[in-house]
Design a protein that fits this description.
The chain is of the alpha+beta class and 223 residues long. It has a single domain, classed as 4-Layer Sandwich (Glutamine Phosphoribosylpyrophosphate, subunit 1, domain 1), CATH 3.60.20.10. It contains six helices and ten strands. The longest helix is centred in the C-terminal third of the chain and has 24 residues, at 185-208. The termini are far apart.
């Protein structure tokens, strides 16, 4: 019911984009940590695995080792699909034997993707190829991955939710956008990104150095 891509850029930013036929997919699947990595916990989702794997990455495991350690004594591994990228560029994917429908994974130089209930197993590689061939901010490239998945056939049925998040070393997600239910969630995510991107860095400055921040652009702000 889900396809996702996790990736990093040359500036050390780490991000993830995801879409699904189910509602609010990004709330369950997206797990990021500054300077550590990204995890998508998907399929029949256990969000706790995302946090656990990030803890293992932070403790020194690589992507593949972190998945193995997280699932070693975990009874429901056969129901889970996991996508992991560590801060050093290592990637790993786990497909439990009960992963739903047609599923697969793809990999690029700076990206890894996976999905289930797909129209074809080629979809994740199409996502990575689009990401690697695109230019611009990490958010724009992640969106290109989602758009490529949809163009290549997407899920077996229509998608209804999508989301994107990025960490850049500030201590929080400087981009965190969600479309929890929409007839065209990836297009709507792109619209939201167009609203957010010009303001993103202003909000970073407001967090780090409010005395240097620009005006808020709302009624009552006279700066």
């Amino acid at each position: 019911m889900t396809f996702s891509i996790v990736a990093r850029d040359q500036h050390g930013r780490i991000g993830m984009a995801v879409s699904s036929s189910s509602p609010a997919v990004a709330a369950r699947c997206t797990h990021l940590r500054d300077g550590i990595g990204a995890v998508s916990s998907q399929n029949i989702t256990d969000p706790r695995l995302g946090t656990h794997i990030l803890d293992l990455l932070e403790a020194g495991h690589g992507a593949d080792s972190a998945i193995q350690a997280a699932l070693e004594n975990y009874a429901d591994a056969d129901y889970r699909q996991l996508v992991v990228l560590d801060a050093h560029g290592g990637v790993a994917v786990h497909h439990g034997k009960h992963t739903l429908g047609v599923h697969g994974s793809g990999q690029g130089t700076h990206s890894v993707a996976a999905g289930n209930m797909l129209s074809g197993s080629h979809i994740p590689q199409a996502m990575c190829d689009a990401f690697e061939q695109s230019e611009g901010e990490l958010e724009e490239r992640l969106l290109a991955g989602l758009q490529a998945a949809l163009s290549a056939g997407g899920e077996e049925g229509p998608v209804h939710s999508a989301g994107m998040a990025v960490v850049s070393g500030h201590g929080w997600r400087d981009t965190d956008l969600r479309v929890d239910w929409h007839e065209d969630p990836i297009a709507e995510l792109g619209r939201l990104l167009g609203v957010w991107s010009p303001q993103r860095n202003d909000y970073v400055v407001r967090g780090l150095d409010p005395s240097a921040s620009v005006g808020y652009g709302v009624p009552g702000d006279e700066r």
